[in-house]
């Protein structure tokens, strides 16, 4: 019954999306009928509510383990812990697409409820665009990915969830990323709305900015969490693999980062109008490209649930339709968007343009590297693109970008002097030179990207806190704090990446029980290997004591696990976090002579990568709260 | 600077950035794209030289042996047409076994030995690297 209810709610929501689109279109045509336009707001709210209820119906079916629903039977198990029953609702293709469209509709409802500052016709056009976007994804769900499909007869028990996905951090990984992806859909709808009503200006930018900031903060959290998950769960000791699925989340982030900066220029200085609209289109396009890559089954990974070509073509068609439509609208309307305010080549605006250009280059490099193997495969050529391509190409541009990030906030809006900038950057650059010299002397044989990275991190770290210099910290606005924290986070993350790449020590050894090995400053001793039993797995667990100098030993317990349902082997790395890095141990196979294979890593300062990520996201949240607080007293439409 | 000029200059910069990204990507791809080889391809086309490639095929029966260090393995990858000796230092994946599919990432030595720095085996019952699925299909249909 609940399944039919959920499906019915979904059809109703889709119907309201149709209504939302036509109401908007008619209201924009018939300027004399304000009542039509006002009706679109309750429709958008109702559509969000219905989609949300439909999603809760699906979660309910997973909680009660209703095996007569195909999706539950295929992805759940009645013995699973509650958390994984709930997260199982979006740990599959259909459920995750329902989550996608639910967030999209709820976001549309939220715009209708809270947005009171932009012109009324722009709001109507925005909601119309949001309705049309949602409609495509409703059609996708209802016609090719129905999450509520019944199974007759119902099996007595479900198939279970991929053990790799049974992890508390991962339960919240997809919703976090989706909040980011779909938050960008709001920016997209605002851009389309403003183009339709020729209302590209600071008011539009201020309306869009909180959504961009929020989406960007969620994307940052999602990427950081995904990176840490891959690091400890896969047992390969790496934190970024340039896997297409990782790139699928990185590309919208890069576009959102550019958009976030240009939207601020538009809101503050009324420059970069066309540019900002274009970036909003590109950012959501990247979200859809990401969804397409992950959900179409083109890639084989834990993320790709569907291997159904019909679904892949459906998403591809939606993608081309929306991106193509938005670009066409852009091409037709952009000449009517007047030129914004002017600025000098040395100014805050110019630095932000440089930021946008460099982000665009990185985005291009990542996009081409991600899509090329797919295109090549379609032409019968099988290739793979990995770190040897991405690291130098994207890394070198990223270093330039981070240097620009160091300088940008120290420039004034509109016009500034180059000599003044040099003076303001003197301390950070001196610090960077100090790091450069000490690294080259102490460790002359580390890679180019590593020592450049350490130097850049020092310059950017010092420069990022410079905007607070000689300022009353109490009276510094919250959004300035947000910028400082986020920029400092970038420097921290870069320092972690460079330090880990430069100073990481790795050993691969075979030792008998009681034997020992050295890695970096540690002496590692394999005490014993014993079998252990978990709730739905059995494992061999090694007890390992690691000692640095005369300090007391730390104990690590890596496992080689065997999951029963579905039968899967996984390796659980043991990681000890110390102040200056992590010791990472993986238990391998046992050899015929009774020696155990151990893979040992000493990774100095590696945790800075994820601390940096958290700081970046925190900066985004501070900026969001700060902006909302500052703009709370701006006049609304109703006051006029 | 006149209004029209600034927009034009920005548009030119944007175009330069996009083209620059394309050029950077193309030059990187030419050097770093790892092509997929089956042992038969190596036989036909010769060694690919000193660049990273992927080698895929089946692990030959009774070809796996381990060095005295306990962590280096040697085995032979075959595809029904030819055989390639492979050496790998590391922990082999759980589903790496004889008569089973494998994709090795690494480089060929001038003497024809493939030194792998990563091995991908069937991840679970349902997973097979897409390249391998294609090649296996070809191989199977040839041997039938």
How are the SSEs ordered, and which strands pair?
The complex is a heterodimer of chains A (640) and B (144).
Chain A: H1 2-29, H2 34-63, H3 70-75, H4 82-88, H5 93-114, H6 120-144, H7 168-171, H8 173-196, H9 202-233, H10 244-269, H11 273-295, H12 309-333, H13 348-378, E1 383-384, H14 387-407, H15 418-424, H16 426-442, H17 448-465, H18 478-503, E2 505-511, E3 516-519, E4 522-533, E5 537-548, E6 554-556, E7 559-563, E8 568-572, E9 574-578, E10 581-590, E11 596-604, H19 608-630
Antiparallel strand pairs in A: 2-11, 3-4, 4-5, 5-6, 5-7, 7-8, 9-10, 10-11
Helix pairs in contact in A: 1-2, 1-6, 2-4, 2-5, 2-6, 5-6, 5-8, 6-8, 6-12, 8-9, 8-10, 8-11, 9-10, 9-19, 10-11, 10-13, 11-12, 13-14, 14-17, 16-17, 17-18, 18-19
Chain B: H1 3-32, E1 34-37, H2 39-45, E2 53-59, E3 65-66, E4 72-78, E5 83-89, E6 101-108, E7 114-121, H3 130-143
Short description:
By secondary structure, chain A is α+β, with helices and mostly antiparallel strands. Chain A has 19 helices and eleven strands.
Would you mind describing this structure in some detail?
Chain A has 640 residues and is an alpha+beta fold. Among the domains of chain A are: 1-159; 505-604. Chain A is built from 19 helices and eleven strands. In chain A, the strands form two sheets. In chain A, strands 3, 4, 5, 6, 7 and 8 form a six-stranded antiparallel β-sheet that branches. Chain A has a four-stranded antiparallel β-sheet with strand order 2-11-10-9. In chain A, helix 1 (2-29) packs antiparallel against helix 2 (34-63). The radius of gyration of chain A is 26 Å and the shape is globular. Chain A starts with a helix and ends in a 10-residue tail after the last helix. In chain B, strand 4 (72-78) and strand 5 (83-89) form a beta hairpin. Chain B contains three helices and seven strands; from the N terminus they run αβαββββββα. Chain B has two domains: 1-33; 36-143, OB fold (Dihydrolipoamide Acetyltransferase, E2P). Helices cover 35% and strands 30% of the residues of chain B. Chain B has helices spanning 3-32, 39-45, 130-143, and strands at 34-37, 53-59, 65-66, 72-78, 83-89, 101-108, 114-121. Chain B is of the alpha+beta class and 144 residues long. In chain B, strands 2-4-5-7-6 form a five-stranded mixed barrel. The model of chain B is unreliable at 123-144 (pLDDT under 50). Classes of the chains: A alpha+beta (640), B alpha+beta (144).
